[in-house]
Amino acid sequence: MVGWIALTFTAASTAGEPGVPIPAPAHPFIPSVGPEVRSFLGSSPDPKSTEKIAEVKISPNTSMPRLGPPQEPHSPSLVDAAIESSLYVHPRCGGRQHALDERGIWERGRDNAHDLFSRVFDDYRQFYLTRDLAHVALALAVAAPIANTHADQGLRDWYQRRAGQGQHRSLDETARFFKRFGDHQYFVPGYLVLAVGDTLFPEVPWLNTVSTFGRRSLRALAVGAPSVGVLQVGLGASRPFTEDSHWRPFHSSHGVSGHAFVGAVPFLTAATMTDSYVLKAIFITGSLGTAWSRIHHDDHYFSQALLGWSIAYLSVHAVNQTDSRWQVVPVDIPNGVGMGVMLRY
Q: Which of 94, 120, 195, 308 has the most CB atoms less than 10 A away?
């Protein structure tokens, strides 16, 4: 109380005198500004700078000179906190953070399997619920007069006399080569292996095309197989070395050449995946090889090989129509580009 009164009195007694500076108030807990502080603040002990030094504020919390205006407390936003947390790498993870961010093999396999089954469902709808089924009826209409007349037998006899099995060794070897493409017990597992290539090795660029070929071939076989099976038994035709080719429902199970169907699928699938007309012509010609080999080996009549190839063509066409509706397209997004799936309906 005494100190406070003396301070008031001193201020009152000198306030009215002009030109007399008012000294800074003394306080037992507030240190005076000495030369060390002046040196820290970058000011010289020049008397002319005394007024600037006197303006230094003393913090009542720390009893230290306040070198700048008080800072407002800053709390980070949720966005800033999320960004900071995403950059944090636990010491136990170390360099595995990049591997942890990638999709694992099971995630890729699950997504590819889901996409495959979704597309097969659309393939069936395209084949059996559109005019493609009418094209199967058209193929039957073309094959019917050939199978149920002497035409099939006449074509078989003419070919076997001039170029049939045993006539030319080179033709026999070529027919044997193309016949293997129709062995489903070997090629279906092969397509399965190709289909999972990009799932197992996503870092290999060219495996994406190979896997697409494998999946599309499997889809075409899955779509056309029910038609081939039903017509094989439903038409009831027999092989050349047993009976004629007339259709006798449920009499036999060779009304359609299964080898011609399976063997044509990979070539026709490859033809749909290239933009080169030369390659398309080569692949389409190759798709006829297995059907021809069945005629050359006298295992099927011409009408039966024709039906097998026709169903393969329509199955691949259905797959191609589905994939024309599902397209992966680039997408322009803020601060970059991305990929999207476009569905036409």
A: 308
The pLDDT tens digits of the residues spanning 82-127 come to 666 655 555 555 444 444 345 677 777 788 788 888 999 999 999 9
List pLDDT tens digits, range 15-54. 444 444 545 445 444 444 455 444 444 444 555 444 444 4
- Whether the per-residue pLDDT at 150 is higher than 50: the answer is yes
Query: Both tokens of residue 297?
Result: 């080996």
* Residue 209 per-residue DSSP state: H
Q: Which segments of the chain are extended strands (E)?
A: 57-58, 65-66, 326-333, 336-343
If DSSP codes are grouped into helix, strand and coil, which group holds residue 32? coil
DSSP characters over 301-322:
-HHHHHHHHHHHHHHHHHHHHH
Q: Which residues of 265-291 are buried (b: 16+ CB within 10 A; e: fewer)?
A: bbbbbbbbbeeeeeebeebeebbbbbb
How far does the chain reach from its first CA to its final CA, in angstroms?
Answer: 92
> Which residue(s) pair with 329 in the sheet?
340
Domain boundaries along the sequence of the chain: 2-64, 105-343
Whole-number Å distance between alpha carbons of 160 and 283: 26
Tokens of 275: 């933009």
What are the tokens at 191?
């397509």
